[in-house]
């Protein structure tokens, strides 16, 4: 038996020409003012798959101006919830009609398997439909117990112009966790996708126009974090900036936004643990661990990149995880049989390998993998499924977001010890617990410092259930009703009925 399960190049025909992506500003498709472009090479196949206009400060400011004008004149914010919902529902239908087209370009740009890309794009349509339902059911609050002559109403109003900055790992899904909710609230937007994966965002721009969204309500600017992202964060005409990406970049965005005291929503990194107790369904737990660490090649903020296993079962459970890891199909993202594709860039692959090498040097043991993976017929940007044992909690590989297919194994004896290991981290995005004892699960869920706690499952999500982290995993929430609230301003309206207010100035 070979050590890994490999899917070689399938020989699927690649697109004859790259996808050409342009800016969308005030309802019109535009090239960059200076004609600059940026090519994206497929990390799996090594060919140019998209060519995008490379924007700068001028394009970003023009897009912001368009969004500002569109908000201020009320062409979107003053529509009824029913009217806004109708547009969002049309967009959802167009997404579903174009799943194959969008999934292909996302697979080629990101390196993820085609089946995963189809799931991401098709599943995102549900986010748009849920956001449409929120547009129709949005409401504030009323207080009619303040006295016979008083009535107060708490209103929720759209906050204004929103800058949306999205990453490369789930380019369409994460965009759909933000944009439809901002639109449901009545906001206008400027979107900057990652320069590595711009194409599905541009395709969405096509759908927005076809669905009848007024010009200027959504604008798209392509390019790099500097200067485009920095401009979108700092410009005083922007009321909210929402960003998903690394914690380091998130700090920079928060600093840039602070000068104008605009609202900031950040979905950042994670070092997400799964804690396995001896009474767990160990077969299901092992499968979920393998899924959690290798999904999207570990390039996922929710990656279950560390497991904390009870000492009594640690060796046997780790052996089970290693055996399952060997069965996971790594290889050609265009082959439907592939479960794990390519690393997004050579630079990122080198970063992953450096973490593994440093752990080895510090005394950790590599039970599986630990180096680049050669896939016949494809490029070099693949990495082996990797399991690292004998890890101490102070090692970088146990504390930092590696963002690759690398699992670290730690052990515990008591629930309190497990919670200490879980919480002794800068991050607090997600955590999981595996036990058949409901009391153990509830005690863990209450004690874990994380925005999401999964019990006897991993990475299940729903549009209705809000998402976000604590500590250095971010600020604010996405999806669900709380995700909508990120794009609302709260206004209290206090009304007196009749002339019952007593004079403050006393006659002399």
Question: How would you sum up this structure, described in words?
Answer:
The protein is of the alpha/beta class and 508 residues long. It has two domains: 14-268 and 473-492, Aldehyde Dehydrogenase, Chain A, domain 1 (3-Layer(aba) Sandwich); 273-455, Aldehyde Dehydrogenase, Chain A, domain 2, CATH 3.40.309.10. It is 37% helix and 21% strand. It is built from 15 helices and 25 strands. The strands form seven sheets. Strands 17-18-19-15-14-21-22 form a seven-stranded mixed beta sheet, sandwiched between helices. A hairpin with a 2-residue loop joins strand 3 and strand 4 (28-30). The longest helix is centred in the first third of the chain and has 24 residues, at 114-137.
Keywords:
508 residues; alpha/beta; Aldehyde Dehydrogenase, Chain A, domain 1; Aldehyde Dehydrogenase, Chain A, domain 2; 6-stranded mixed β-sheet; 37% helix; globular
Summarize the structure.
Helices cover 37% and strands 21% of the residues.
Protein topology:
Layout: E1 5-7, E2 19-21, E3 23-25, E4 28-30, E5 37-41, E6 48-53, H1 57-72, H2 81-97, H3 99-110, H4 114-137, E7 141-143, E8 150-158, E9 161-165, H5 171-185, E10 188-192, H6 199-210, E11 218-220, H7 225-234, E12 240-244, H8 247-258, E13 263-267, E14 273-276, H9 282-294, E15 306-310, H10 314-327, E16 329-331, H11 346-361, E17 365-368, E18 386-389, H12 396-399, E19 406-412, H13 415-423, E20 427-428, E21 430-434, H14 438-447, E22 452-455, E23 470-471, E24 474-475, H15 480-485, E25 488-496
Parallel strand pairs: 1-16, 2-6, 9-10, 9-12, 10-11, 12-13, 14-15, 14-21, 15-19, 18-19, 21-22
Antiparallel strand pairs: 3-4, 5-6, 7-8, 8-25, 13-24, 17-18, 20-23
């Amino acid at each position: 038996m070979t050590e890994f399960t490999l899917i070689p190049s399938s020989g699927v025909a690649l697109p004859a020409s790259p996808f050409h992506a342009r800016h969308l500003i005030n309802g019109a498709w535009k090239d960059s003012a200076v004609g600059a472009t940026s090519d994206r090479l497929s990390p799996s196949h090594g060919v140019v798959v998209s060519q995008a206009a490379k924007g700068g400060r001028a394009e970003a400011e023009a897009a912001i101006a368009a969004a500002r004008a569109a908000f201020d004149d009320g062409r979107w914010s003053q529509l009824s919830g029913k009217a806004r919902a109708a547009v969002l529902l049309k967009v959802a239908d167009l997404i579903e009609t174009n799943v194959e087209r969008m999934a292909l370009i996302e697979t080629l740009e990101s390196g993820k398997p085609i089946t995963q890309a189809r799931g991401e794009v098709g599943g995102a349509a549900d986010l748009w439909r849920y956001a449409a339902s929120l547009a129709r059911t949005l409401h504030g609050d009323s207080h009619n117990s303040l006295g016979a002559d008083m009535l107060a109403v708490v209103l929720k109003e759209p906050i204004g112009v929103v800058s949306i900055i999205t990453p490369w790992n789930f380019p369409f899904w994460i965009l759909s966790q933000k944009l439809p909710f901002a639109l449901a609230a009545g906001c206008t937007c400027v979107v900057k996708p990652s320069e590595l994966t711009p194409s599905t965002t541009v395709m969405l721009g096509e759908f927005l126009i076809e669905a009848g969204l007024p010009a200027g309500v959504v604008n798209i600017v392509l390019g790099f974090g500097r200067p485009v992202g920095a401009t979108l964060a700092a410009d005083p005409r922007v009321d909210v900036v929402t960003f998903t990406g690394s914690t380091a970049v998130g700090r920079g965005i928060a600093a840039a936004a602070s000068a104008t005291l605009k609202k900031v929503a950040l979905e950042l990194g994670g070092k997400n643990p799964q804690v396995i107790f001896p009474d767990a369904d160990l077969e299901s737990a092992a499968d979920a661990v393998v899924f959690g660490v290798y999904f999207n090649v570990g390039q996922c903020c929710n990656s279950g990149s560390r497991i904390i296993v009870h000492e009594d079962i640690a060796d046997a459970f780790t052996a089970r995880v290693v055996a399952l890891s060997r069965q996971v199909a790594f290889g050609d993202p265009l082959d439907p049989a592939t479960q794990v594709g390519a690393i997004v860039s050579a630079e990122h692959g080198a970063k992953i390998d450096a973490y593994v090498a440093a752990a080895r040097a510090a005394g950790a043991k590599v039970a599986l993998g630990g180096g680049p993976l050669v896939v016949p017929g494809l490029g070099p940007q693949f990495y082996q499924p990797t399991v690292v044992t004998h890890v101490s909690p102070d090692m970088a590989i146990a504390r930092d977001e590696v963002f690759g297919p690398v699992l670290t194994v730690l052990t515990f004896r008591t629930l309190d010890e497990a919670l200490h290991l879980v919480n002794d981290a800068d991050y607090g995005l997600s955590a999981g617990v595996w036990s058949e004892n409901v009391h153990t699960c509830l005690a863990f869920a209450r004690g874990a410092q994380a925005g999401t706690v999964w019990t006897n499952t991993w990475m299940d999500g729903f549009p209705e259930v809000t998402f976000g982290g604590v500590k250095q995993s971010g600020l604010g929430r996405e999806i669900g009703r709380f995700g909508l609230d990120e794009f609302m301003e709260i206004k209290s309206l206090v009304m007196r009925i009749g002339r019952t207010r007593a004079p403050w100035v006393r006659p002399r």
